[in-house]
Amino acid sequence: MDWNSGTVTMAHGSGGSATEELIHGIFAEAFGNDTLNRMEDAAVVSYDALVAGRECGEHRGNNVIPDQGSGSCGRLALTTDSFVVTPLEFRGGDIGRLAVCGTVNDLLMRGAVPKLLTCGWIIEEGTKLSLLKRVAESMAETAKEAGIQIVAGDTKVIEGKSGGVYINTTGIGHVPAGVDIAAGNAEEGDVILVSGTMGNHHAAILSERMSIENDIKSDVAPLVEMVSKLRGLPVHTLRDVTRGGLATVCKELALASKKTFLIRDHLIPVDMQVRDFCGLLGLDPLYMGNEGKLVCIAKREGAEEVLAAMKASGYGEKAAIIGEVTVEKPGALFVETEIGGRREADVLQGEGLPRIC
Amino acid sequence: MDWNSGTVTMAHGSGGSATEELIHGIFAEAFGNDTLNRMEDAAVVSYDALVAGRECGEHRGNNVIPDQGSGSCGRLALTTDSFVVTPLEFRGGDIGRLAVCGTVNDLLMRGAVPKLLTCGWIIEEGTKLSLLKRVAESMAETAKEAGIQIVAGDTKVIEGKSGGVYINTTGIGHVPAGVDIAAGNAEEGDVILVSGTMGNHHAAILSERMSIENDIKSDVAPLVEMVSKLRGLPVHTLRDVTRGGLATVCKELALASKKTFLIRDHLIPVDMQVRDFCGLLGLDPLYMGNEGKLVCIAKREGAEEVLAAMKASGYGEKAAIIGEVTVEKPGALFVETEIGGRREADVLQGEGLPRIC
Fold first, then answer.
1. Which parts of chain B fold into alpha helices (H)?
2. Which of A50, A295, B237, B243 is 20–30 Å from B293 (CA)?
3. What are the strands, taking DSSP E only, across chain B?
4. In the predicted model, what is the mean pLDDT of chain A?
5. Count of CB contacts below 8 A, A vs B?
6. Would you call B31 and A154 a contact, using CB atoms and an 8 Å cutoff?
7. Spelled out in words, what is the top-level CATH class assigned to the domain B183-345?
8. Mean pLDDT score, A217-243
9. B51 Cβ under 8 Å from any chain A Cβ
10. Least confident among A46-60, A199-213, B91-105
11. Interface test with chain A among B46, B54, B135, B156, by most A beta carbons within 10 Å
12. Can you tell me the mean pLDDT for A39-54?
């Protein structure tokens, strides 16, 4: 990337390789610190990062101490996300529900219990007040479903003609003592699970934008119940499958854990209508974003229990075991077909569909 | 406001009466809860809001407990703010410095020590990478000055032609035990102070937009040192003077405390160049936004000490006592001239200058 004369392109917002380049080249470069450099879904810090000399003997001092195991007092999880989806309302959801779910799910992926939420609204002049009201109400309802409380907000108005609304949500959660769920924790022999069908959100947004009539609905949902059912089970890693899709997430987890991820194409749940839609447009469900699905890496010995817990949760009935973790080529992702064909896959390259979240 | 067929206008972003209408009519209506309803610069909650059954005996339970005095374990402060200023770089600062200072100052206004910061970037395609780099570096530098650590971030890209950048920052701070600083705490006989000259930021932004050549610089600054010097002094209320200006802030504090605020026009510090600039354009410095100034309501007995502490701080050399709190007309703000003339003033009406922060 040419940092002197280059400009930002839509590909930088795809969640794929260009996004990574931008984040590393500019933001990590300027802000880099131990906590941020972990590039997890949420930062996890000791409460002593806030309160010097708290009663917990495990972590002391004034500095932010990056996630170092559990501690007897638990830790604080913190994550932020901006939402720029267009259209603002779509089959299965709207930007308000999305803004709560995206942030709640990021907290959950570190094993945190979501607690407090802030929201910052940037609104283009000309936006209909009735639309704002619907989106705010949807946000409130989703927050209630997720058990998180909105405690601070901000509103700004900008010029514009398209009636656009952008929402930032920042979430705070509590990681109970003993919980250690992180991107790099996958171990040899672990099993890879997904919590449901891939591509629904992405296909729903694309259908709306292209005015294609079908019944595909966004899967946008808060995974609070599901993650609470996973507590106590041998889960090493959780990651929600959003921008970049399943392949991007699996490749990132393979890199973070320095293990090999092997997923089996025919085991990956994809709704028939989404599969047909993808076939028609030449899209690969493996690279399509979701907003209510997670990948779970679990110890083989408890994998069936993990699967059962997912299936017993709201939004988890189509959960499936889709692959395993090996060590044959550290950092690699392999996709195997039903008849044994195998290809190495990378993170999403290029644009994908921008502004799906 | 017509909630069925109305639309958002630039006035809704002014920080004045239209903003209040929008916030109350839509957001407070949908999200309302005890903490949010306080409409403070930052929400303050018990740590038990995060961690049920923590060792502090003062606050227990799973629910978010709104600010109810001090507690022996201190409390958590949380605030969010989006920044949409244009131009992105201006005399005295840029959107990166602004995004840190705005949120840090909001935390400080509740007596919190700023600790952790998240940032969410929304970037229009076409934005120069070199500009992003400068803004990110300015942000990092300001965070360092303010002693706050950036621990989580997010990047989105949107279509657009103006190279716009919007930044949301959310801040977390720790309110030490025993600290109780809030909008409604003003008491009869209290003294009103400001930490420096009014209108510099607003005038600097307006000068840039109108291509007027002058030496006016934005006052954007983190007030960490100043507030730390105020610890232990008899301070009842702190409020940073941003959108809407000094008059809007004083009117809001008069309403929150159900007291009368009397400020003396000739005691309010305004730089000569800003005064001339305002005179020329028919603007009132009382309604012009700042980004590094605060109003302080202090007990009369300690007011000289408070003033001295402000003056001894960076960004506080022009601090002044400008008025007092009475009870003659609850919720009213009076502005008195040098020769004893008096008028009642309200919050900012109409547009003001949009997108100054």
1. 17-22, 29-31, 95-108, 129-146, 200-209, 224-230, 245-257, 272-281, 303-311
2. A50
3. 43-46, 75-83, 89-90, 93-94, 113-124, 149-158, 165-175, 191-194, 235-240, 260-264, 294-298, 320-326, 333-336, 342-345
4. 90
5. 296
6. no
7. alpha beta
8. 97
9. yes
10. A46-60
11. B156
12. 76
Q: Are B250 and B261 in contact (CB under 8 A)?
A: yes
**Residue A336 backbone phi and psi in degrees, to 5:** -110, 140
Residue-level pLDDT at B72: 62
Domain(s) of CATH 3.30.1330.10: residues in chain A: 17-61+73-175
Percentage, residues of chain B above pLDDT 90: 76
For B39-72, what is each residue's pLDDT tens digit? 788 999 888 778 754 433 333 333 333 344 445 6
What would the pLDDT profile of A123-161 be if each residue is shown by its tens digit? Answer: 999 999 999 999 999 999 999 999 999 999 999 999 987
Q: Select the residue of A78, A129, A157 nearest B1 (Cβ to Cβ).
A: A129
Is it true that domain A17-61+73-175 has CATH number 3.30.1330.10? yes
Q: Best interface-test mutation with B: which of A129, A137, A209 has the largest number of B CBs within 10 A?
A: A129
A62 band by pLDDT with thresholds 50, 70 and 90: very low
At residue B151, does pLDDT exceed 50?
yes
Peptide bond into A87 cis (omega under 30): yes
Q: Return d(Cα A273, Cα A22) in angstroms, integer.
A: 35
Overall size of chain A counted in residues: 357
A-chain residues near B81 (CB < 8 A): 120, 154
For residue A183, give both structure tokens.
Answer: 């991107």
pLDDT band at A339 (very low <50, low <70, confident <90, very high): very high
Question: Between residues 77 and 106 of chain A, which touch chain B (CB distance below 8 Å)?
Answer: 78-84
Query: Is the predicted pLDDT of residue B152 greater than 60, yes or no?
Result: yes
pLDDT score recorded for residue A72: 62
Rounded to a whole number, what is the distance in Å from the CA of B127 to chain A's nearest CA?
5
The model's pTM is: 0.92
Bridge partner list, A261: A325, A333
Q: Measure CB to CB from residue A116 to each of B27, B49, B125 and give the nearest one.
A: B49
Q: Give, for A309, the enclosing helix (H) or strand (E).
A: helix A303-311
Q: How far apart are CA A194 and CA B250, in angstroms?
A: 55
Q: Which of residues 150-209 of A touch B (CB under 8 A)?
A: 150-159, 164, 166, 168, 170, 172-174
Under 8 Å between Cβ of B94 and B86? no
Residue B87, preceding bond cis, omega within 30 degrees? yes
Q: Do B80 and A170 touch (CB under 8 A)?
A: yes
Per CB-CB distance under 8 Å, the chain A contacts of B64 are 115-116, 149, 151
Which regions of chain B carry the CATH code 3.30.1330.10?
74-175
Residues 13-32 of A with CB under 8 A from B: 13, 19, 22-23, 25-27, 29-31
Which has the closest alpha carbon to B106: B305, B206, B242, B269? B242
Q: Are the beta carbons of A170 and B168 separated by less than 8 Å? A: yes
Q: Which of A6, A64, A127 sits opposite B151 (nearest CB)?
A: A64
Topology, domain A191-345: Phosphoribosyl-aminoimidazole Synthetase; Chain A, domain 2 (3.90.650)
Is A194 in contact with A322 (CB distance < 8 Å)?
A: yes
Q: Reading across the β-sheet that carries B320-326, which strands appear in turn? A: B235-240, B294-298, B191-194, B320-326, B260-264, B333-336, B342-345
- Among the partner residues B80, B136, B156, nearest to A120 by beta-carbon distance: B80
Of the candidates A19, A25, A153, the beta carbon closest to that of B27 is on A153
Query: Which phi-psi region, left, alpha or beta, contains residue A324 (left: φ > 0; alpha: ψ -120 to 50)?
Result: beta
Identify the CATH assignment for B74-175 out of 2.60.120.10, 3.30.1330.10, 3.40.50.2020, 3.90.1150.10: 3.30.1330.10
